[in-house]
Amino acid sequence: MDVGESTCDAVVIGSGPNGLVAANALAEAGWDVIVLEAADEVGGAVRSAELIEPGFVTDLYSAFYPLAAASPVIRGMDLQRHGLGWVQAPAVVAHQLDDGRAAVIHRDPAATAAALEQWAAGDGQAWLDMFAHWQRIRDDLLAALFTPFPPVAAGLGLFRRLKLAGALRLARMAATPVRRLGEERFAGDGARLLLTGNALHTDIPVDAAGSGMFGWLLVMLGQDVGFPVPRGGAGMLAHALRRRAESYGAQVRTGTRAAGVLVRGRRATGVRLADGSRITARRAVLADVTAPALYRQLLADVPLPASLRRDVENFHWDSATLKVNWAVRAPVPWRAESSRRAGTVHLGVDLDGFVDFGADLTAGRLPQRPFVLFGQMAVADPSRAPAGAETAWAYTHLPRRLASDPEAVQTQVRRVQDAVERAAPGFGELVIGRHVQSPADLQDNNANLSGGALNAGTSALHQQLIFRPTPGLGRPETPVEGLYLASASAHPGGGVHGACGWNAARSALRASGRFGQVHRALIRTVWDRVLAEH
Predict the structure, then answer these.
(1) 3-state secondary structure 95-130
(2) Distance separating alpha carbons of residues 433 and 23, to the nearest angstrom
(3) Which of 160, 261, 299, 493 is at 20 to 30 A from 212, Cα to Cα?
(4) For 300-353, what is the HEC assignment?
(5) What does pTM read for this prediction?
(6) Beta strands 390-398 and 278-287: pairing type?
(7) How buried is residue 387: exposed, middle or buried, by Cβ count under 10 Å (0-12/13-18/19+)?
(8) 423 and 96 Cβ atoms separated by less than 8 Å
(9) Do 117 and 110 form a contact (C-beta atoms < 8 A)?
(10) What contacts 525, CB < 8 A, 6 or more positions away?
């Protein structure tokens, strides 16, 4: 599509949730914004389609959105006015073991506690105590997580609430491996399974520092806001974000690929498109692309410090992802009745199996017993399938070195199907259609999902905060003035919460504001020192 020469205040490259949030923030502030999307539809990894059979709506990538439900960024946009409706399954998440037992987070904390008490005496009260602690700190903690680094105001609020002793204990928990956290907090396997399975929504091994924080955060969000889904499919969230941005005057151009960022001196001045035309940006360029894509491709012809180039070469991706989608003629026949009410089901491994799974990924081996995340969408949203039927999907991880090996992919597809069959005997007989998304398929359809990496870079501590995406500021600003990294490669990382795009937009607005010259000079000075000293 030839769009000719254009001029605007800001160009946003990419229309994933972060890019669309950034466009909303800038357009709402009165900026003239153009969003460029290479695909024919907006949404990035927030899309859905009738992939297998008519009437069966499959979420192509992400599906459940506790971070979106909790995010002050998303909640503040009032997307219900733009066509978004949230719905919930009767139960939040279950971990189904092969022997028929299941640990479940119910919508009611008391019901969750009662169920966990059946696994071990005292675990119900331990769960309620953990949730009460979450409720005391949730607002300050979420503000700290979702704002640019360092989160001074939110951090001070959290410290005032916790005092020194509480802050130290929270910091220790943030560094504790999830396996150890479960052992410290709970006597039985039920709550430990829930903590560990949710920690593995990231790529951090269960014995690694930081995994406990992610497991705790997701189970607490699940107990607090649930795992909601957009009514009608994940794409409804992206469409609502687009409609809101357009209501403030933003232009969204699909089928339009950015080929490079234009730079004059040390400042971004616009974008060169694949068809050779250019868009001039008076104020800013925001890139909702991965850090390697930004620095290696969009800035390929721009002189950058050698130290930055080296850091980008050392960028650490998260594990590859394999996704299997099914159209099913009847509800999934889980061994545990409680799993039939949960929108998300974890399966395939027990507590020790989590360790084996992580060790295989770390060693580059194909996991013999994969940990599987399973979604049954009609349980949460009956509109996703014909009456009495189910739209289901499952994903697991494999080492990146095996991501393009067809034999490894097919082997793992069989192992995923076997894991589901162990937990839900007879499942295969109910399947009327199946579609596999290999790591290569995921990348081909969304360039940000490099090798099927879901989080735009590892969530491990060595690539978080001031180390995300490279050692630097932990902020959306780049060494090129007026250019901002607005993807999940930036702090705070993966998940559909919009904070990466929001932070980039707020930084761009601040740089153009009353004290913008001082802000830009400070950022430039710090970058110069960081890049000169390592």
Answers:
(1) EECCCCCEEEEECCHHHHHHHHHCCCCCHHHHHHHH
(2) 38
(3) 160
(4) CCCCCCHHHHHHHHCCCCCCEEEEEEEEECCCCCCCCHHHHHEEEEEECCCHHH
(5) 0.93
(6) unpaired
(7) exposed
(8) yes
(9) no
(10) none
Backbone dihedral angles phi then psi of residue 224, each to the nearest 5 degrees:
-85, -60
Pull the structure tokens for residue 262: 């234009």
Q: How many residues does the chain have?
A: 534
Three-state secondary-structure class, residue 155: helix
Give kind and range of the element (H or E) at residue 215. helix 211-225
pLDDT per residue as tens, the chain (534 positions): 344 589 999 999 999 999 999 999 999 999 999 999 999 999 999 999 999 999 999 999 999 999 999 999 999 999 999 999 999 999 999 999 999 999 999 999 999 999 999 999 999 999 999 999 999 999 989 888 888 777 777 788 878 888 888 888 888 988 999 999 999 999 999 999 999 999 999 999 999 999 999 999 999 999 999 999 999 999 999 999 999 999 999 999 999 999 999 999 889 999 999 999 999 999 999 999 999 999 999 999 999 988 999 999 999 999 999 999 999 999 999 999 999 999 999 999 999 999 999 999 999 999 999 999 999 999 999 999 999 999 999 999 999 999 999 999 999 999 999 999 999 999 999 999 999 999 999 999 999 999 999 999 999 999 998 899 998 888 999 999 999 999 999 999 999 999 999 999 999 999 987 777 777 777 777 777 777 755
Nearest one of 224, 231, 181, 169 to 206, comparing CA atoms: 181
Orientation of helix 178-185 relative to helix 189-199, angle to 10°:
150
The CB-side HSE value for 61 (13 A sphere, CA atoms) comes to: 26
* Pair type for strands 342-347 and 483-485: unpaired
Other Cβ atoms within 10 Å of 149 Cβ, number:
19
Handedness of CA 285, 481, 17, 204 (dihedral sign): positive
Q: Which helix (H) or strand (E) holds 93?
A: strand 91-96
Place of tokens 């809101």: 244
Is residue 34 within 8 A of residue 253, CB to CB? The reply is yes
